[in-house]
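The methods section describes the discrete structure representation at length, but only in general terms. What matters is that the chain and its backbone geometry are given together, residue for residue. Nothing conveys this as quickly as seeing an actual entry. For illustration, here is how one protein appears when written out as sequence plus structure tokens:
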Amino acid sequence: MKYRIVGNNLQMVIIDIEKGERVYAEAGSMVYMSPNMKMEAKARGGLLKGIGRKLAGETFFLTEFTPENGNGYVSFAGNAPGTIIPIEIESGREFIVQKDAFLCAEDGVELSITFQKRLGSMFFGGEGFILEKLSGKGMAFIHACGDMVEIDLKEGESVRVDTGSVVGWDAGVDYTIQMVKGIKTIFFGGEGLFLTTLKGPGKVILQSMTLHNLAMALQPYLPNQGQTSGRSGVLGTFLDETLGR
């Protein structure tokens, strides 16, 4: 399997699939594909794993793509401005990602759910109580809002991160939540009450913008219900009525 990631902050991954290979993806993430690509929705792993995916923010059914009569290609994209990161999953390696980060993977990669292990991380970590775990063997692709930075932490090395900005980490990385020190910093620092501390060894992936922060930044510019769109003239009225505003 070969792939290439194109674009800047609205990226797509284009995967070339050889005969006999198969990839699967989050339902609705396919952008385009070759005419010989067979597409089939499946509840991979059965009922319980399907329910687990729903709890993690994914779809109950995943879509499998297999080329017929030769090689083929298929492309996928996320549902928000952001970046696609490839992750090579090897036997014995497990990689944890925030819920709703999974985009697509080779057939040999298993997608399942896992849970925060520490009480403070569950309530204040920003990534949520339920997380996604990638295991098995093959290439997987995740998508998150903003730009990404990958840090390879050595044994005992740590980094402190704004809560909610952690996209993924090797299962062996220690993940803890710590309260910000200083009353003045808590109330006027603008960074919130808690920071995430990640301690190696292992790889961590961080994002520059969370989907929540993006939504909050756009909120002042979105029309409220009952307000007009601000368009004027006959064309503006027509557009408003056509779009249901």
Confidence is low (pLDDT under 50) at residues 119-126, 184-190, 228-232. The radius of gyration is 21 Å.
